[in-house]
Amino acid sequence: MSISGVSSMSSNLAISSQKSSGSTSSSSSSSSLEQQRSSIEQQIQQENSSNDSSEIKQQKIQALQAELQQIEAQIQQTQQTQQTQQTQQVSKLIETSNNQSESVQSMNNESKSNSNSNSIIDVYA
Length: 125
What we know:
This is FlxA protein. It comes from Clostridium drakei. Residues 1-125 are annotated as: Disordered. It is built from 3 helices and no strands. It is 85% helix and 0% strand. The chain is mostly helical. The protein has a domain at 30-91.
């Protein structure tokens, strides 16, 4: 493969990584990114054992490693986003639970207050 073939491959890699950086749901995105990472790792292994000249091989591997780093950064960002979403969900659940507890406690206090006022006997009646 010639140098122009390598630069063509590099531009294709850049285009594919731009397409993969679009927003999708976290779990499917994470799974897709993991598959891409695995594929690139296999391509790197194949290139290491190819018969290309060492210069061409090095250029191809560098391009693949650059894409691999981008994908790993996207994976890390997706994981952080998932953790943030989970934390927010837990916080909302705790807040809802606290609000419900306060509401129940308030109703219990009102009930006690009502039962106490019903027990008062008017001796002057």
